[in-house]
Amino acid sequence: MNPALIAGIVAGAVMSGTSLLYATLGEIVGERAGIVNLGLEGIMLIGAAIGFAATALTGSPYLGIAAAAIAGAAANLIFAYVVVSRRANQLAAGLSLMFFGIGLSALIGRPFVGALISGLPRLSVPGLAPGGIGARLLSYDSLVYLALPTALLTWWLIFRTRWGLSLRTVGESPAAAFAAGLSPELVRYQALAFAGLLGGIAGAHMSIALTLTWAEGMTAGRGFIAIALVIFAKWNPLWAIAGALLFGGAEGLQLQLQAAGADVSPFIMNMTPYLLTLLVLILWGWRRQSAAPAALGRTFVGVE
Amino acid sequence: MRLDGAILSNCAARAKTFALVAVIALGVFATLLVAAGKDPLKAYADTLLYVFGNAYGFSELLVRMIPLLLTAVAAALPARIGLINVGAEGQLYMGAWLATAGALAFRDQPAFVLLPLLTVFGFVGGGLWALISGVLRALRLVNETISTLLLNYVAPLIVSYFIFGPWRSPESSSYPQSPAFVEAARLPTFFHSRVHLGLVYALASLILYSLAMTRTRIGLDMRAIGGNPEAARRLGIPIFRFILIVMFIAGGVAGLAGMAEVAAIQGRLVSEVSPGYGFIGFLVSWLAGTSASGIVIMSFLFALISSVGDILQITQGVPFAVVNILIAVILFIVLGRQPVGRSAR
User: Are residues B150 and A267, on separate chains, in Cβ contact within 8 Å?
Assistant: First the structure.
């Protein structure tokens, strides 16, 4: 393999891994509070559509990202109300959120199909020859550069702060958290708002920085891959970085093969992320080490 | 007499709740459409006029109910042993795929050979696809919820690979699709409409499902597993085997829906066999509490809601997917209405 091809794969891995990383980090925080959110796919779609629409209307990709983050958090708060306050089934509520996202993003995105945006500007490391391998490897948008600090910040938040301790307590045993004077409801609302924020940004990165277009259903199951990545990452933000790079790498490799004119059907190649996810889950299942929060997916009925 | 009164008042209370949910959901959806510059009231009126205005419109509602009934059974059956099959969409595609393979390979056979053959192929296609998740779950490797969700994205890619590649019809160069099925491979239709044999399959599946759950030893065992897997295991019920068989049958029923879509409606394999019937079927089953009669009622309602999506797309240029908002709002209200403190399965 020549260096240019490898540089292309690495750059592709970083670009498509970024949106997966944001989504996975958000889902980790939510699941650490004991809530499985199958609606992540819908949140990402809403983020992608609103982010794109806001960018097209205002001309500023940064406003687009802000709008996507706020919309993602707002949509996740609807979910939070249903599963936390109304104690509904998390899987059914998550799928409802997915449907909501598919529908809302289609409605919002429709007028912007084919719209042109300038996209998130790429910031190059100064001093590299333009067009060279160095420039290809180190020329990303600001969300890419912020992804790693966000992962570290999320790790610090979960494992090194008082709020993170409450979060983990609520995820392991809401009853114990309640007995210790915490409000499981409040912590779960906060966790889901944070998850929605990151999920919205993840979707916006796809439409504003990666494809520069809006297409119905453009996230194509990445929300579910992110949910699987949470299991891969063992609910740890630092492992999520490795997972996102691995899956981004699969996609980067696929794009480079296609660009190089490899004689493999694009449909077969498009299956790779899903099959790779399944394979990873099988391998993880084999080792039978689950690091899942103990109260994950359970409805906390309250202590009376 | 007292009993009759109680049943009547119960029905009245249900109808009232139901009407309230419908009014709120339709109101929220209408508000969003108005905000997007569309005319929701016209869309609602057009839908009612189209569906109930003449026999053909109503028959189209039945046509749309068929895949919903079948995919709802595909979700309800595993739910009885505590499995969450969210993969009916992918199973539907694989049923359509294998049925197409059968229709293309045995195209010179008469209808009395082809129709049973297509049925078996459709069933096996969906069944084997679901069995992947069943095996992974039975071996306690991967949770079936996540594996069925992931496989939903793989199945349409397999279908696309075949219609863009080996099965691509030479006659249609612009729009990729398989060659048309021979007449003998087309499911019979009734009453001069598009209502097809799939309706019989759907009703038979529902009746068999209902009878099996309430009248047989198998149903009793299944309810035991669903109620308390540990107790069922100690009773000597072969849970491992049940998981595999139930997932295979459930996938098979969803596969029948896919087979019927290609063999009756499309007449060939196309890239979009279903606009998400599998997902809606899951919600139908969930809202119906996996009861057979509930599935019929909910399928009817969701078929009606899908018609709103069709009308919006045809008359006002709104993407069909927008109707998902209406589905989601209804679900949110139903989920939010459940008495706090009791979680629904």
Answer: no
